[in-house]
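This part of the workshop introduces the protein records we will be handling. As an example, a complete record with its sequence and its C-alpha cells follows.
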Amino acid sequence: MARKGPRAWRLRLLAALLLVGIVGGTGAWWHLRHWQPERAAWPMQGAEIGSEDGAIDWKALKGSGADFVYLDASASTFARDPAFVENFEAVRAAKLQTGAVHRYDPCQPADKQSANFVTVVPRDATLLPPAIELDQLADNCPVKVSDAAVESELMTFINQIETHTGKAALLKVTSRFEKRYHIATAIDRNLWLVRDRFQPDYGGRPWTLWTANSALDTQAEEEPVRWIVVQP
C-alpha cells in the first residue's frame, strides 16, 4: 500500500495540471473570441463580411462598433459571392461605408479576373478603395507560373480594377503570401495585414488596415466575424 501513495499523488497532480490547462485554454479562447482593439487607440473599426457569415443584423453590427464593412465580392475568374448584392444594399441602408474584396488567383489571367470583378462591383465614387486578397500561392497551378509572372499579372490586375473604381487598391496580404512573393515591398500600395490579437509586422512597412480578430463574437449574427481596424 505504501508504494501506491506517491503514484496516486502524482496522478492527482497530473489531473490538477490538466484541469488548469483546460480552464486556461478555454479562458484564452473566450477572451480572443470577444476581444476588440480599444476604441481610444483605434477609432475606426469595421468588419469583413461574405456569404459564409450567414444572415447579418446590420444594425447590431453597427452597434458593435463597425464604422465600415468590406464585402467579399469576387474570386478568380468566375466565382462571385452569392450574398454580395443583398449585402451591398443592406450595408447602404444601414449607412455604413463599404468596399469590395476580390480573392486573387495567381493561376488565372489578370484580364479575366478583372472582368469578373468589374461585373460584380459597381463603378461608384462613394465606395472604399477596392481590396485584393492575396493568400493563394501558385504552387499548384495546372501550368507553372513563375514568381515574376505572379507579380506582373497582379500589377496588371491592380491597374485594371483601379481604372474601374478610380481609387488605388489595398493589398490584403497574408504572411505566407508575403513570405513567398515579397509583394509588400515590390508593389507600392496600402497594406491590409492579418494577425489575431497582435499587430502584424511581416509587411516590412506600415500597414493601413489590420484584421485584428478573425473570429469575433458579436450580436450581429450567430457566426463570428472578421474584425478590422484602421491605422490612426
Observations:
- The radius of gyration is 22 Å.
